[in-house]
């Protein structure tokens, strides 16, 4: 039987621009090359705003949108990118790559969902296929964790980058079980009320996306890294205080110029819902400890959480320097 990824390939042609493209060669130290394993959407607007603010402070930044977090991590490890966006815990432990997380961007806020025509609850997914964002992602970790908790085993895990893509695939009938973000949840509830059920998840406290970089780059470009961290912290705190500010800042920086009216209308509701869970201090050691607890249970990390060392996964120098100036919240 053709898997989910194959079935929806034709339906996601509009998202083809997120396919990986060649990155600059490693010999070029400038600009700061950021590899983002996703597409630019409403959900990433606050990050795009923060990057523009870092540019205003003198940091020359080039962002490349790639097909998946895996490719973004590989780009950083190979030296084709300086900074990656994702959750590279498995890579850090299993490959012992010389990279470190230096800032938490978001916490997991996702909703497992099934088409009620086929499934009603977790037990119904035993022996069935599901779709998640990418290998090693928070969405995969959640779905693996819930399989373990409910005593089930999936027949296959398909990797379908982009919450919007997975939401669309659900509506089109190409996916029967997956996991979406808050925006996707609202879309499903409004466009197909009663057709989908959101499965119980319980409390999850772990990193969804973080910034990570090669340790050598962090040391040799500490000032630029601090400028980036400060721009993100400032933006996160502003958005948390006033979610409506995102729409105005999008216009100021001319971001997502091809956004449709429906996408623009989604900006304020999305950030209003996301604001309470935004990490306003960049995560740091507390976030690392939460991640150890979650990712060891889900299987992305091995060992006992209390035995894992923060320094083996995180570099806190830039974040601590910025917090010393900007204060904590």
UniProtKB/TrEMBL annotation:
One GO biological process term: alkanesulfonate transmembrane transport
GO cellular component: periplasmic space
Localization annotation: Periplasm
Signal peptide bounds: 1-29
Chief location: periplasm
Limits of the SsuA/THI5-like domain: 55-244
Pfam assignment, any one: NMT1
Gene3D superfamilies, per the entry: Periplasmic binding protein-like II
Key word Signal present: yes
InterPro entries reported for this sequence: SsuA/THI5
Keywords on record: Signal
Family: Belongs to the bacterial solute-binding protein SsuA/TauA family.
Protein's recorded name: ABC transporter substrate-binding protein
């Amino acid at each position: 039987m053709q898997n989910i990824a194959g079935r929806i390939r034709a339906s996601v042609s509009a998202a083809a621009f997120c396919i990986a493209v060649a990155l600059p060669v490693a010999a070029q130290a400038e600009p700061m090359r950021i590899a983002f394993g996703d597409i630019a959407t409403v959900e990433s607007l606050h990050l795009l705003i923060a990057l523009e603010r870092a540019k205003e402070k003198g940091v020359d930044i080039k962002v490349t949108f790639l097909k998946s977090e895996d490719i973004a991590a590989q780009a950083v490890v190979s030296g084709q990118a300086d900074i990656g966006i994702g959750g590279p815990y498995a890579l850090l432990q299993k490959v012992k790559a010389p990279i470190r997380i230096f800032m938490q961007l978001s916490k997991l806020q996702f909703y497992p969902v099934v088409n009620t025509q086929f499934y009603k609850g977790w037990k119904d997914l035993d022996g069935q296929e599901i779709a998640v964002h990418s290998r090693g992602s928070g969405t995969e970790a959640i779905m693996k964790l819930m399989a373990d908790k409910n005593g089930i085993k999936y027949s296959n895990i398909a990797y379908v980058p982009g919450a919007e893509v997975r939401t669309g695939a659900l509506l089109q009938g190409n996916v029967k079980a997956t996991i979406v973000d808050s925006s996707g949840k609202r879309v499903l509830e409004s466009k197909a009320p009663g057709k989908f059920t959101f499965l119980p998840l319980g409390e999850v406290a772990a990193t969804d996306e973080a910034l990570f970089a090669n340790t050598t780059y962090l040391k040799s470009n500490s000032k630029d890294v601090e400028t980036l961290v400060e721009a993100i912290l400032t933006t996160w705190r502003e958005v948390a205080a006033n979610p409506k500010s995102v729409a105005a800042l999008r216009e100021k920086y001319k971001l997502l110029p091809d956004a449709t009216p429906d996408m623009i209308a989604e900006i304020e509701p999305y950030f209003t819902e996301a604001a309470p869970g935004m990490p306003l201090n960049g995560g740091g050691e507390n976030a690392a400890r939460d991640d150890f607890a979650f990712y060891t249970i889900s299987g992305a990390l091995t060992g006992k959480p209390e035995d894992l060392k923060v320094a083996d996964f995180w570099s806190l120098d830039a974040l601590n320097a910025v917090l010393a100036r900007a204060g904590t919240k």
